[in-house]
Amino acid sequence: VTADGQFVLLSDRTLNRLARNCDGSELSKTVYISDITYGQAIAYDFGIGFSRKFKGARIAFLWDVLEFAVRSGLKVVIGFGDFLPSDGERKRLFGLLEGYQSVSCLVCKTLSELESAAKALPQISLCYFGDMGEGALENISRLVPKSRLSLRLDFKDATKELCERVKKHAELEIGIISDNEALAVAEHFGADVVLT
Q: Which residues, including other chains, have CB under 8 Å from residue 42's CB and lie 6 or more apart?
Protein backbone atom coordinates (compact mmCIF):
# COMPACT_ATOMS: atom_id res chain seq x y z
CA VAL A 1 0.00 0.00 0.00
CA THR A 2 1.45 3.37 -1.02
CA ALA A 3 1.60 6.40 1.27
CA ASP A 4 -1.49 7.78 -0.51
CA GLY A 5 -3.43 4.54 0.09
CA GLN A 6 -3.16 2.91 -3.34
CA PHE A 7 -3.05 -0.88 -3.50
CA VAL A 8 -0.25 -1.92 -5.83
CA LEU A 9 1.32 -5.22 -6.88
CA LEU A 10 4.58 -5.68 -5.05
CA SER A 11 5.82 -8.79 -3.28
CA ASP A 12 8.29 -6.89 -1.08
CA ARG A 13 7.99 -4.02 1.39
CA THR A 14 10.72 -2.17 -0.49
CA LEU A 15 11.23 -1.38 -4.15
CA ASN A 16 14.93 -2.21 -4.10
CA ARG A 17 14.90 -5.84 -5.30
CA LEU A 18 12.43 -5.32 -8.14
CA ALA A 19 12.72 -1.70 -9.26
CA ARG A 20 15.45 0.38 -10.85
CA ASN A 21 15.88 4.07 -11.50
CA CYS A 22 14.67 5.15 -14.95
CA ASP A 23 18.24 4.98 -16.27
CA GLY A 24 18.45 1.31 -15.19
CA SER A 25 20.73 1.91 -12.22
CA GLU A 26 20.02 0.22 -8.88
CA LEU A 27 18.39 2.24 -6.14
CA SER A 28 21.05 3.73 -3.86
CA LYS A 29 18.88 3.86 -0.73
CA THR A 30 16.11 1.69 0.67
CA VAL A 31 12.71 2.81 -0.63
CA TYR A 32 9.63 1.49 1.19
CA ILE A 33 6.43 1.42 -0.87
CA SER A 34 4.52 2.69 2.19
CA ASP A 35 6.71 5.83 2.29
CA ILE A 36 6.02 7.02 -1.27
CA THR A 37 2.93 7.96 -3.24
CA TYR A 38 1.74 6.10 -6.31
CA GLY A 39 2.91 9.06 -8.40
CA GLN A 40 6.40 8.65 -6.98
CA ALA A 41 6.31 4.85 -7.43
CA ILE A 42 5.61 5.08 -11.16
CA ALA A 43 8.82 7.05 -11.61
CA TYR A 44 10.71 3.79 -11.06
CA ASP A 45 11.28 1.15 -13.73
CA PHE A 46 10.02 -2.30 -12.72
CA GLY A 47 11.06 -4.06 -15.92
CA ILE A 48 14.59 -3.20 -16.88
CA GLY A 49 16.09 -5.16 -13.99
CA PHE A 50 14.70 -8.34 -15.53
CA SER A 51 15.38 -7.64 -19.18
CA ARG A 52 15.82 -4.69 -21.51
CA LYS A 53 12.70 -5.80 -23.39
CA PHE A 54 10.66 -4.89 -20.27
CA LYS A 55 12.20 -1.42 -19.95
CA GLY A 56 9.63 1.12 -18.88
CA ALA A 57 7.30 -1.28 -17.01
CA ARG A 58 5.58 0.52 -14.16
CA ILE A 59 4.13 -0.79 -10.92
CA ALA A 60 0.50 -1.85 -11.35
CA PHE A 61 -2.59 -0.98 -9.37
CA LEU A 62 -4.37 -3.95 -7.84
CA TRP A 63 -7.59 -2.88 -9.58
CA ASP A 64 -5.85 -3.13 -12.97
CA VAL A 65 -5.13 -6.79 -12.25
CA LEU A 66 -8.68 -7.37 -10.99
CA GLU A 67 -10.07 -5.89 -14.22
CA PHE A 68 -7.72 -8.14 -16.21
CA ALA A 69 -9.00 -11.12 -14.19
CA VAL A 70 -12.59 -10.23 -15.08
CA ARG A 71 -11.74 -9.99 -18.80
CA SER A 72 -9.66 -13.17 -18.87
CA GLY A 73 -11.55 -15.41 -16.45
CA LEU A 74 -8.56 -15.80 -14.14
CA LYS A 75 -8.54 -15.70 -10.35
CA VAL A 76 -6.24 -13.32 -8.46
CA VAL A 77 -4.76 -14.56 -5.18
CA ILE A 78 -4.11 -11.62 -2.86
CA GLY A 79 -1.76 -12.01 0.07
CA PHE A 80 0.24 -9.62 2.20
CA GLY A 81 3.31 -11.72 3.01
CA ASP A 82 4.57 -10.56 6.38
CA PHE A 83 2.93 -7.13 6.03
CA LEU A 84 -0.10 -6.62 8.27
CA PRO A 85 -2.50 -4.03 6.85
CA SER A 86 -4.03 -1.57 9.28
CA ASP A 87 -7.76 -1.73 9.98
CA GLY A 88 -8.26 1.25 7.65
CA GLU A 89 -6.25 -0.38 4.85
CA ARG A 90 -8.14 -3.64 5.30
CA LYS A 91 -11.47 -1.76 5.13
CA ARG A 92 -10.39 0.01 1.93
CA LEU A 93 -9.19 -3.30 0.45
CA PHE A 94 -12.54 -4.94 1.24
CA GLY A 95 -14.28 -2.00 -0.45
CA LEU A 96 -12.12 -2.47 -3.55
CA LEU A 97 -12.69 -6.22 -3.64
CA GLU A 98 -16.45 -5.98 -3.14
CA GLY A 99 -17.08 -5.79 -6.88
CA TYR A 100 -14.44 -8.42 -7.71
CA GLN A 101 -15.32 -11.26 -5.34
CA SER A 102 -15.85 -13.78 -8.14
CA VAL A 103 -12.26 -13.34 -9.41
CA SER A 104 -10.48 -12.89 -6.06
CA CYS A 105 -9.01 -15.15 -3.42
CA LEU A 106 -7.83 -13.46 -0.24
CA VAL A 107 -5.10 -15.15 1.83
CA CYS A 108 -5.65 -15.04 5.61
CA LYS A 109 -3.18 -16.05 8.32
CA THR A 110 -5.40 -15.91 11.39
CA LEU A 111 -8.93 -16.98 12.21
CA SER A 112 -9.85 -13.37 12.99
CA GLU A 113 -8.64 -12.26 9.53
CA LEU A 114 -10.64 -15.08 7.96
CA GLU A 115 -13.76 -14.20 9.93
CA SER A 116 -13.44 -10.51 9.08
CA ALA A 117 -13.01 -11.25 5.36
CA ALA A 118 -15.84 -13.79 5.28
CA LYS A 119 -18.25 -11.30 6.87
CA ALA A 120 -17.23 -8.34 4.70
CA LEU A 121 -16.98 -10.30 1.42
CA PRO A 122 -19.49 -13.17 1.56
CA GLN A 123 -18.84 -14.38 -2.01
CA ILE A 124 -15.03 -14.19 -2.10
CA SER A 125 -12.78 -17.25 -2.08
CA LEU A 126 -10.52 -17.44 0.94
CA CYS A 127 -7.24 -19.21 1.55
CA TYR A 128 -6.13 -19.85 5.11
CA PHE A 129 -2.82 -21.02 6.49
CA GLY A 130 -2.88 -20.98 10.23
CA ASP A 131 -4.07 -23.32 12.97
CA MET A 132 -5.27 -26.60 11.41
CA GLY A 133 -6.44 -28.30 14.58
CA GLU A 134 -9.80 -30.06 14.39
CA GLY A 135 -11.50 -27.32 16.44
CA ALA A 136 -10.10 -24.62 14.16
CA LEU A 137 -11.21 -26.53 11.07
CA GLU A 138 -14.74 -26.84 12.46
CA ASN A 139 -14.85 -23.07 13.12
CA ILE A 140 -13.52 -22.33 9.65
CA SER A 141 -16.16 -24.60 8.09
CA ARG A 142 -18.89 -22.59 9.80
CA LEU A 143 -17.46 -19.34 8.42
CA VAL A 144 -16.74 -20.28 4.81
CA PRO A 145 -18.33 -22.94 2.60
CA LYS A 146 -16.00 -25.62 1.24
CA SER A 147 -16.61 -24.39 -2.32
CA ARG A 148 -14.91 -21.05 -1.52
CA LEU A 149 -12.17 -22.21 0.85
CA SER A 150 -8.65 -23.52 0.45
CA LEU A 151 -6.35 -24.44 3.30
CA ARG A 152 -2.62 -24.15 2.80
CA LEU A 153 -0.09 -26.45 4.39
CA ASP A 154 3.66 -26.09 4.32
CA PHE A 155 5.07 -29.19 2.65
CA LYS A 156 7.13 -30.03 5.74
CA ASP A 157 3.95 -30.09 7.88
CA ALA A 158 1.83 -32.18 5.48
CA THR A 159 0.91 -35.67 6.67
CA LYS A 160 -1.59 -38.06 5.17
CA GLU A 161 -3.85 -37.72 8.23
CA LEU A 162 -3.74 -33.91 8.26
CA CYS A 163 -4.31 -33.69 4.50
CA GLU A 164 -7.35 -35.99 4.74
CA ARG A 165 -8.74 -33.88 7.60
CA VAL A 166 -8.21 -30.65 5.64
CA LYS A 167 -9.88 -32.06 2.50
CA LYS A 168 -13.09 -32.67 4.50
CA HIS A 169 -13.37 -28.89 4.91
CA ALA A 170 -11.68 -27.27 1.91
CA GLU A 171 -9.41 -27.57 -1.11
CA LEU A 172 -5.93 -28.60 -0.04
CA GLU A 173 -2.96 -26.42 -1.00
CA ILE A 174 0.55 -27.73 -0.40
CA GLY A 175 3.72 -25.70 -0.83
CA ILE A 176 6.46 -24.99 -1.42
CA ILE A 177 7.10 -27.77 -3.95
CA SER A 178 10.63 -27.55 -5.31
CA ASP A 179 11.41 -30.98 -6.77
CA ASN A 180 9.74 -34.00 -8.39
CA GLU A 181 9.86 -36.07 -5.21
CA ALA A 182 7.97 -33.40 -3.27
CA LEU A 183 5.48 -33.08 -6.12
CA ALA A 184 4.87 -36.85 -6.05
CA VAL A 185 4.21 -36.69 -2.30
CA ALA A 186 1.78 -33.77 -2.76
CA GLU A 187 -0.01 -35.78 -5.41
CA HIS A 188 -0.13 -38.80 -3.12
CA PHE A 189 -1.68 -36.63 -0.38
CA GLY A 190 -4.34 -35.44 -2.85
CA ALA A 191 -3.34 -31.78 -3.08
CA ASP A 192 -5.78 -29.70 -5.14
CA VAL A 193 -3.23 -26.90 -5.52
CA VAL A 194 0.57 -26.95 -5.34
CA LEU A 195 2.64 -23.85 -4.73
CA THR A 196 6.08 -23.60 -6.27
A: 58, 59
- d(C-alpha 53, C-alpha 42), whole Å: 18
Report the 10 Å Cβ neighbour count for 90.
16
Does 156 score more than 90 pLDDT?
Answer: no
Burial label for 34, CB within 10 Å (0-12, 13-18, 19+), is exposed
- C-alpha angle 4-28-82 in degrees, rounded to nearest 5: 50
Provide the pLDDT confidence category of residue 46 given band limits of 50, 70 and 90: very high
The angle at the Cα of 61, spanning 55 to 67, to the nearest 5 degrees, equals 110
Q: How many CB atoms lie within 10 A of CB 191?
A: 23
Angle made by CA atoms 160, 141, 94, in degrees to the nearest 5: 115
If 0-12 CB within 10 Å is exposed, 13-18 middle and 19+ buried, where does residue 42 land? Answer: middle
pTM here is: 0.84
Mean pLDDT of 176-180: 89
